[in-house]
Amino acid sequence: MNRAEAFSFFDAVASEASKELKRFAKDLQITQKADKTLVTACDIHLSKHIATLAQEWNIPLLSEEDEEGYTLITKPLFAVLDPIDGTLAYIEHAKHPERKLGPEFDYTLLLTIVEKSKPRFGLCYNFVTGERMKLDSRSKIHSIIENVKRLYKSKIAFYYENRTDDSLSRRLLADTKIKGRYQAMSLGQRLLLMQLNPHESAAVSHFAQRSGLWDVGPALVAASWSGAKLFDGKGNPLTANKVFIDGGIVAYKGSYFEGIEKKLLGKL
């Protein structure tokens, strides 16, 4: 698949997802999955709707909300989807549509096209701000970021979620040299802002719940040229070869956090 086709597919998905999301604005149905994470009727509907759209584009779709599709991980080309990354933020918006919630309540759609086990193209669509990050693994120049809203410029930054209570996150939050501290419930968004914003050094620590390829796909695309390093909770580099990620996620760029996976990960 070439870049023009991939980005056209991304635009179609973002537009359709935005329309369908509005249909569920007053229909908030919440259930709990086996891993105790929450899923809404909108998550499931978007997953099915985008799967139908992907079929029209002849793209096999692996979705977080469709376990039967997990076998696609062995295919030479497939897309991987998280229809709503930051479900708790979506729920807050749905419950309180009259409130103006802060950036920590952004929620996003994450979509990655994987070719021959390599993350090739990625999309992060912010439902709240309308920002679209369309990423090409071969070059930052060929990537397109539209309607930029979450631009942070601290020299040293840490992106985190307020549910996180592991020793690594506590240590980083207590570090007085880290002036930029940014909350966001969307893990995929955090992993991208850490890379794309003009920080000299930045890090993400995530141990709140089980994660999967759908959470990190776009970030792996950007890491091809951003210089960022992404690891699972055991200190192994992240790849697109596995559906689930072991024990959490740590990511960083820049010299300040160099070796964080070796120095701190073993002390969680």
Helical stretch tally: 7
What is the radius of gyration computed over CA atoms, rounded to a whole number of angstroms? 17 Å
For this structure, what is the CATH class of the largest domain? Alpha Beta
Using DSSP, what is the number of strands? 15
Mean pLDDT metric: 90
Fill in the keyword field for this structure:
268 residues, alpha+beta, Fructose-1,6-Bisphosphatase, Chain A, domain 1, D-Maltodextrin-Binding Protein, domain 2, 2 domains, 6-stranded mixed sheet, 5-stranded mixed sheet, 7 helices, globular
Write a compact overview of the structure shown:
This protein is an alpha+beta fold and 268 residues long. It has helices at residues 3-23, 41-56, 87-95, 167-174, 187-196, 213-226, 260-263; strands spanning 30-32, 38-40, 61-63, 77-85, 108-115, 118-126, 132-136, 144-146, 156-160, 180-183, 201-206, 211-212, 229-232, 244-245, 249-253.
Description:
This protein is α+β, with helices and mostly antiparallel strands and 268 residues long. The chain folds into 2 domains: 3-146, 2-Layer Sandwich (Fructose-1,6-Bisphosphatase, Chain A, domain 1); 156-267, D-Maltodextrin-Binding Protein, domain 2 (3-Layer(aba) Sandwich), CATH 3.40.190. 31% of the residues lie in helices and 26% in strands. It is built from 7 helices and 15 strands. The strands form 4 sheets. A 6-stranded mixed beta sheet has the order 3-4-5-6-7-8, sandwiched between helices. Strands 10-9-11-15-13 form a 5-stranded mixed beta sheet, with helices on both faces. A two-stranded antiparallel ribbon has the order 1-2. α4 (167-174) links the parallel β9 (156-160) and β10. α5 (187-196) runs parallel beside α6 (213-226). The longest helix is centred in the first third of the chain and has 21 residues, at 3-23. The radius of gyration is 17 Å and the shape is globular. The termini are far apart. The relative contact order is 0.13.
